[in-house]
Write a structure and sequence with these properties.
With 270 residues, this protein is of the alpha/beta class. It has 10 helices and 7 strands. The protein has helices spanning 5-21, 36-39, 45-57, 61-66, 69-89, 111-120, 148-155, 188-193, 203-212, 227-239; strands at 97-103, 128-134, 162-165, 176-182, 214-225, 244-250, 261-267. Strands 3-2-1-4-5-7-6 form a 7-stranded mixed β-sheet, with helices on both faces. Helix 5 (69-89) runs parallel beside helix 6.
Length: 270
């Protein structure tokens, strides 16, 4: 039976605080790594060569050693996405140390790719990182019995400088070189589907807050899925007076999703 909207809203209103309160972290165990050859078997020759170059240049060996096939391919995809955004938007990173926030990270499965991009973007020497990954619903549990927070601990286990923060990013104050919002919820129906209360549906407020964290000369990277989200995102940028340096479609040979992806980069003037 299809759930009626009022029931869904009430359920989300009750379930969410319980997930926040009843959190018992568990160590993820029993992950069977695919190995590099198996992970890349679906790629054509050109994509495979590029993947191998990414693994070497961006030091993704630890991920390959531990990760399942999807972990490897999706991280290659996200690395490609981030490097493309940096290139298109003219992102500049400090030479020695980068401070960043990533808002709405779920289980942060792409954390290895994010760390790799920030450490090595146009740099021969790896930068030191201080990256906060905010997730307002860390207690959502998957079919395997583990929560987002459990998996985030697994994905970030060997990543120095990355910290998973199980809180609403709107409560944090600070300044960063880079802020990321990768596939934020823009429509209320998406919050309903993912079990979040409607009180979280403040996309323009969240965007304004995240933009306020970016220091002069810093950058904001936003990714959307589908044309409707892209158009809504651009409306929010315009309403807040945020000038977008780059916007456009993104695709990668490493992984394909059902819905098209779009990238936007805004840079705060010095």
């Amino acid at each position: 039976m299809r759930l009626l909207a009022p029931y869904v809203l009430l359920r989300n209103q009750l379930d969410y605080p319980l997930r926040r309160l009843l959190r018992f972290p568990r160590e993820v165990r029993g992950v069977r790594p695919a190995g590099l050859d198996a992970a890349l078997t679906s790629l054509d020759a050109d994509a495979r060569a590029r993947a191998l170059a990414f693994v070497e240049r961006y030091e993704l060996g630890p991920l390959v050693t531990r990760g399942r096939r999807r972990d490897v391919l999706e991280n290659l995809y996200y690395l490609d996405l981030l490097l493309t955004a940096f290139e298109r938007g003219g992102v500049e990173l400090p030479a020695q140390r980068v401070e960043a926030v990533d808002v709405g990270v779920s289980d942060w499965f792409y954390a290895p790719a994010l760390a790799a991009a920030l450490r090595r973007w146009r740099s021969d020497e790896p930068r030191r990182l201080e990256v906060l990954g905010f997730e307002a619903d860390p207690g959502r549990r998957y079919a395997d019995g583990y929560t987002r927070e459990d998996w985030a601990a697994w994905y970030t286990a060997d990543l120095d400088g990355l910290r998973y923060v199980p809180e609403d990013a709107r409560r944090w104050r600070g300044v960063v070189d880079v802020a990321l919002m990768l596939f934020p919820f823009l429509f209320a129906r998406d919050l309903d589907r993912w079990g979040l209360p409607r009180s979280f549906h403040r996309p323009r407020e969240l965007l304004a807050h995240v933009w306020s964290l970016v220091r002069p000369g810093g950058s904001l990277v936003v990714a959307n899925q589908g044309e409707a989200e892209r158009d809504e995102q651009l409306r929010h940028f315009a309403a807040l007076g945020i000038s977008v340096a780059s916007t456009g479609h993104f695709a990668s040979p490493f992984f394909a999703y059902d819905v098209e992806r779009y990238l936007h980069v805004a840079r705060r003037p010095v």
